[in-house]
Amino acid sequence: MKPIFGQNTANRYRLVLFSVISFAMIFVDHRSDVLNPLRFTLGVAIAPVQYVADIPAQVATWSQSSVLSRSELEEENARLQSEVLVLKRRVQKLASTVAENTRLKELMNASDLVDDQVLIAEIIGVDPDPYRHEAIVNKGAGDSVFVGQAVLDAEGLMGQVIEVGPFSSRVLLISDISHGIPVHVNRNGVRAIAVGSGKLDQLNLIHVPDTADIVRGDLLVSSGLGGRFPKGYPVGVVTKVEHDPGQPFAVVEAKPMANLDRSRHVLMVFSEESRKLVPLLFGAAEPQSDQEPQAEQKLTSEQEPVTKQESPAQEVTDGGQ
Asked: CA 245, CA 284: separation in Å to the nearest integer?
């Protein structure tokens, strides 16, 4: 019994000693930084133990992420693909909006350079017949649009109105084979007639003398002869000039300045010359000077429209008188 009693007493003394040492170390650590090196050393010593103790939690997390079912992965993949498509659509819509905003700014800048009164319209349809170059705009008789009115975009002349409805109008493009417009070379004033070739990117100049001073790169502008088209608007740029000694006329081709196949918004011009010409085209009396300006430029839908099925020679004659 004695040895056991003595062993228990020794254990109590050790426990008391360790407790005193522990409290002393806590007090010293709280009051000073003397034990910082010891704390650092102990932290390095027990780091492997901490890593080993964390292994079960890491294994559990890895197992949970690795045993996901195939259906869950396919569902997540489909969701991500849908999100990608939505984001791509938004990017495309944003790009389209930016491009349209740029075109509208160009169109407004062009309208600032035009001296005549203009009306902004939007192309809402095109003729599906490849041999007829016509477009439909969303302005009609209610907006004072009239037959023969010039139409242009931000770059140059596009054509003229050939049919007016209550809410829309039909426009004949300058590239149509039945269309002709009097032009002159901006460099030297040489006059010519530009007719459509049936191609959106080509105009033909007819009856140009072989000795005429026309070269590639010359700018063609509307001459205003006949009063159908206002004077001074860009029509095209000469791209080809061929002289044949055996022929009296030169072969001259030009590229339209207007974006006939891309423009969405257009300008409809109300010039004084075109307004005065409208009554003469239909045999009506010219409006009195005391009438309101709005009544002057308005053309009712009951007036007889210009016949669209004209030969190229007839159209050229109308435009060049």
From this structure: 48
* Cα dist from 47 to 37, 55, 60, 62, 127, whole Å: 16, 13, 21, 22, 81
Contacts of 124 (CB under 8 A, 6+ apart): 136, 137, 138, 168
Between strands 157-164 and 265-270, the pairing is: unpaired
Task: Return d(Cα 231, Cα 166) in angstroms, integer.
Answer: 28
What residue type is assigned to position 51 of the chain?
A: Y
- Residue 68: the pLDDT is 63
Model pTM score: 0.57
Which tens digits make up the pLDDT trace of 87-129? 776 675 565 576 667 767 776 766 665 556 888 899 999 999 8
Helix residue ranges per DSSP H, 144-288 = 272-282
State how far the alpha carbon of 103 is from the alpha carbons of 76, 96, 108, in Å: 41, 11, 9
The position carrying tokens 């930016």 is: 98
The structure tokens listed for 36 are 């910082």
Q: What is the pLDDT of residues 24-52, one digit of tens each?
A: 777 777 777 776 777 677 777 777 877 77
Taken in order 201, 206, 209, 213, the sign of the CA dihedral is negative
Query: What single string gives the DSSP state of each residue in 51-101?
Result: HHHHHHHHHHHHHHHHT--HHHHHHHHHHHHHHHHHHHHHHHHHHHHHHHH
Contact 163, 151 (CB under 8 A): no
> Measured on CA atoms in the order 144, 145, 147, 150, is the torsion positive or negative?
positive
